[in-house]
Amino acid sequence: MQTWSSVAVPRIPGTPRPLRLHDTATGQLRPTAPGPVARMYVCGITPYDATHLGHAATYLAFDLVHRLWLDAGHEVHYVQNVTDIDDPLLERAERDQDDWVVLGMRETALFREDMEALRVLPPRDYIGAVETIPEIVEAIGKLLAHGAAYRVDDPQYPDVYFDRSYTGRFGYESGYDEATMATLFAERGGDPDRPGKRDPLDALLWRAARPDEPAWDSELGPGRPGWHIECSAIALNRLGTGFDVQGGGSDLAFPHHEFSAAHAEALAGGHPFARHYVHAGMIGLGGEKMSKSKGNLVFVSRLRADGVDPAAIRLALFAGHYRSDRPWTGALLTEAQARLERWREAVSLTAGPEADSVVARLRDHLTDDLDTPRALATVDAWVTEALRRDGTDNAAPALIRTTTDALLGVAL
Ligand code: 5CA
Ligand code: ZN
Description:
The chain is an alpha/beta fold. Helix content is 42%, strand content 15%. It contains 13 helices and 14 strands. The chain has helices at residues 53-71, 87-95, 100-117, 133-146, 178-187, 228-239, 253-267, 300-305, 310-318, 330-347, 356-367, 372-387, 396-408, and strands spanning 20-23, 28-31, 37-42, 75-82, 125-128, 149-151, 160-162, 203-208, 223-225, 243-249, 274-280, 283-285, 288-289, 326-327. It has a five-stranded parallel β-sheet, with helices on both faces. A hairpin with a 2-residue loop joins strand 12 and strand 13 (288-289). Helix 6 crosses helix 7 (253-267). The protein is elongated, with a radius of gyration of 22 Å. The two termini are 31 Å apart. Residues 43-46, 54-55, 57-58, 81, 83, 231, 248-249, 251-252, 280, 282-283, 289-291 line the site of 5'-O-(N-(L-cysteinyl)-sulfamoyl)adenosine (5CA).
């Protein structure tokens, strides 16, 4: 698929720091230790509705990872998928009497526009599930050959499932107990009651063709892919095993990332899928998680159409820590707009307080598990002094401008 266009990321002086991130699998804050090319996979959208502020918050968090690795001198190989065939897309198309292909293309195009407006650095590989069906089929064929997958005994719909006991360490990624896994599996797209499965929690790999559903011919028989194997195949085939960060919102920790890892590890002789599993908290609205299924949404495109500066959206979402579940409110946006104005006023002055130490502290906070609240407070403190006309350093305003651009993606 076509990715979106990039923006230039300026280099900043001083000494970069290695990025430390919370890893769901170990429950620890650990340094990322990429090689010359840092490798990241972030789960993309299911394009049946427009990008809301929950999606935006998650992609903005991983945009910071991208920027901090660039700052540390790495090249970044970033891969993101588009789940352009799955039940929610078909259900929405049916509800609205829309064509599922057209719906997916339209919402993906809008997502790209939103990402560009937010200055999110694009993935190098932006990959749809539909265009990767041959890769997915090949992966499922291997899982069947390894004995990690099986067909249910149903002559009409011989679906293929993954045997979750195969790798021997199922559950390591999310760390959830059996009862929690069972609850979340049922809530998040699983089918525990499908007759013929060896274990209620085994996940669908290939759904045999049903009447009135899209299907692709393949050596597995006509059908369409399950959800988790899509991300395993796309990531493994582009990044290899043991890539640096697998990312998404916390609602993907189970079952999606657990199964993506288990499928990939079954394919790759047990080699770990990713080194870090990183999860962003959920943005809420009106006391509930913002979600397409609940319909309590604020769209990025709506705010843009209302003339809201995308830099203010960044600042509003960065006012909270990426891992905390937090509400979106009008007040958050108003405060961010006021902050943006103050920052812009300060960097347009001809002088300000010395800024090298500000750059160093920004790096400290951001490389400490993306501590944006403290990063914003650090810039605020410089801005307050600058607006009091406290400083005499003529290079400082430009340095702050370049640094907020490079590290936070906020163009002043
Ligand atoms: N296509 C799959 C991933 S392969 C999917 O989950 N798509 S999605 O459109 O439902 O979500 C896209 C990303 O936004 C996921 O990382 C998801 O965890 C994240 N996300 C969804 N809702 C929220 C929310 N309210 N707050 C923060 N992140 C969210
Ligand atoms: Zn995914």
